[in-house]
Each structure stands twice: as structure tokens, then as C-alpha cells.
Write a structure and sequence with these properties.
InterPro entries: DUF2933 (IPR021682). Keywords: Membrane, Transmembrane, Transmembrane helix. This is DUF2933 domain-containing protein. The protein is elongated and about 65 Å long. The protein starts with 23 loop residues before the first helix and ends in a 14-residue tail after the last helix. The longest helix is centred in the middle third of the chain and has 17 residues. By secondary structure, the protein is mainly α.
């Protein structure tokens, strides 16, 4: 049986991602700022009808971020 552990002097690779990147503090600041602004302007937000446009904006945002994975190939795999 073989030992598949990394030697102690080699760094163990960590999993990347948004929460392990240097941008996590920027993301945290933006989210906290949005929460504070939403709390301060809650009366204007809830009485203005802005909530009617929120689902449309969310759909457009999701559509934009979902197409980032295509890398300009129109959704087709380049190995086909």
C-alpha cells in the first residue's frame, strides 16, 4: 500500500474561489454597504415601485453571469 500524502516541506494546494481570494474583503464591504444603504433608504425603496423592477434586473444579471462560462463559443464545446 502506497502513502499518498504530500511531504511536510511542500505546501498543500488550497482550493481557489471567491471566498479564498483577495477580493473577499471587497465583496464583504460592498455587501455591508448595500445593506446599510438599503436600511437607510428603505422607505424610498419600498414606496417607489422599485421592487417591481427587481425580478427583471435579477434575471438579467443571472443571464449575464451564466453566459460568462461559454467563453464566446455560443455554448458549444470546442472538443466536438
Amino acid at each position: 500500500m502506497e502513502n499518498h500524502q504530500a511531504p511536510a516541506d511542500e505546501p498543500v494546494p488550497t482550493r481557489g474561489g471567491l471566498f479564498n481570494s483577495p477580493w473577499r474583503y471587497t465583496l464583504l464591504a460592498v455587501v455591508l454597504g448595500a445593506l446599510v444603504l438599503g436600511y437607510e433608504y428603505r422607505e424610498a425603496i419600498f414606496t417607489s415601485g422599485l421592487l417591481l423592477y427587481l425580478p427583471i434586473l435579477l434575471c438579467l444579471g443571472m443571464h449575464f453571469f451564466m453566459h460568462r462560462g461559454h467563453k464566446g463559443t455560443g455554448g458549444r464545446n470546442e472538443h466536438d
